Amino acid sequence: MTGVVLGNRYEIISEIGSGGMARVYKAKDRYLQRTIAIKVLKDEFKEDNEFLKRFDTEAQAAANLTHPNIVQIYDVGRDNDQYYIVMEYVDGITLKEYIRQRSYLDWREAVNISIQICSALSKAHSRNIIHRDIKPHNIIMTSDGVPKITDFGIARLVTSETATMRIDTVGSVHYSSPEQVRGGYTDEQSDIYSVGVTIFEMVTGRVPFDGETTVAVAIKHLQEEPPLPSSIKPGIPKALDRIILQAMAKNKQDRYATITELISDLENIRARSGVSDEILLPNIRKESDKFSTRKYTPLGDEDLAKSVNRRKKEPENNEEKNKYLFPLLYVTLIVAILGSVGYFVKTILGEIITPPDEWPKEIVLESYVNRDINEVLLELENDGITPEVIYQNDDIVKENIIFEQSPPPGSSFKVGGITPLVLKVSKGPKMVEIPDVKWQDHNAAKYMLEDEYGLIVEEIAEHNEEVAANLAIRTEPGKGAEVREGTKVILYWSLGPKKEQVVVPDVIGDTYEVARKKLMDAKLKVGNTFPEGREGHQGVITDQAPKPGMTVDEDTPVDLFFEESKETGGNIPDDIPVDNKRYKIKLPKEFNRDETVRFRAEIIESDSGSVYELFDYYEVPTKEFPKDITVNFPVPEGVIRIYINDRIVLEEWF
Fold first, then answer.
1. H helix runs in 252-295, sequence order
2. Between 3.40.50.300, 3.20.20.70, 3.30.10.20, 1.10.10.10, what CATH number should domain 360-426 receive?
3. Residue 133 among the catalytic residues
4. pTM of the prediction?
């Protein structure tokens, strides 16, 4: 398809990939003068009307997703029988290739990538959009190491009509949840399972379940427990083991309830530098600590009999165990209670029995509020007091200044007693470092600055020769600057190169092809043609807008008005110049009268062999045939060929 222009706008440059449903091409947006990626559906899906209807609805919904870690969808369309999605072009490699190049990723890098992936899914899930095909193949790593999820155009809205899917049409079985394998109801937690598999592969370099066939892999998803990642690659924190296994729980109720819970636990791991087990994971369920590396094997008849006999013996064994267990629990509880009472009595009696000169020193607390913490600590140290200091951000109180104390000033305080002195100290306002936003979609950059950095964003558009239209140029303050959360930041984005002023040429009296060449040479383009449906190839132009001689911006569309067509027998009228000729094109018998066809014509120069395209129109109703056309020959001698759906219906030397 190289060189093909879809939608009279997107010029295909080269093929960059192919999947189960579509081929992906690198292309150029002629209007916005930027590089884009365009995904064209394969032929086998074009006949499924129900699929095409869902495809259009769901792609339109996905186009509303704007997030720095989601490949942005710009447009969805159809050109004759070609269905396509236009999206952001990302210069990078897939996460699958990234893992393959490195064998496996350091767990810290994997956690960082995972948080960004989950952040993108959180945005999608908040719009009731489920991806259902999360896998490293659908995540692109930019040259800056930023992951971007693609293929949201085939995601599903959460509705009763789209709640199930066939795994052999969308997705990969190695990353599919058990409910997807069964063809059951899927929701946000299906994406969470796939994220768990993806994290597993990042940190180990392999998928948790593999087999010779897709059926074998699917059965393992249903029946087997995944191995511990740390058993494959030592050095992975046990806490990350817990997170991955909970995300990959067979039953949805055992997984994370939301992607936000998963992000929270990943953030807690990222905040630690070591592999300690003492990391707080508030969203891990107790059951997730019971790791198992056993493989599930279906029971045969003998195994089933043994299992039944074993269950018969279990009540007796349980009764025997309970005979000793409960008394032991009672004794333990009594000892704990007596120990607590003894400690309390010892503390009280200690103060009563201790001589007065050895009693704890008692002072009256001063007011430490609005004082520097370092000065107060020196003062309290002289009194033998070690306070509990809590640092908190505060937009008003200066850094290191105490803004609250407990007990309050004037209270009696025993030095070394049970009650501590608590001082709350300001860390100053919360500061954020402004990221580099250049080359990002300006809407994505705006949402990132607002949602992730808590800044107030004002946008200013300006022309830029370097940065393509609709992409961010810079911020003010610039990247790396530290500012308070809530600070106003100016985001500059590009309108593309500044357009020159050009003079509109006179095309009145010209045919469509002559007018189009004149307009292109003047850096303008053809706008609407009238009467509507004329397609701009019949007759000569009687009027134009803007008028000849006017000064306009380059790339401005010029509307063309044509003379009314007249039925002729196909002979050359006397009033048409010798380099013009009128033809009557008839419709071949095999075409139906209620469909549309592609109608195009070209001229091949006899001397040089150069090919000139006269016109190329998609979706021309067959009821318009026989069709009169007037041809202006751009060369003195050659062959004219006219096609209907790539079938030659006229070939003539001139």
1. 259-270
2. 3.30.10.20
3. yes
4. 0.47
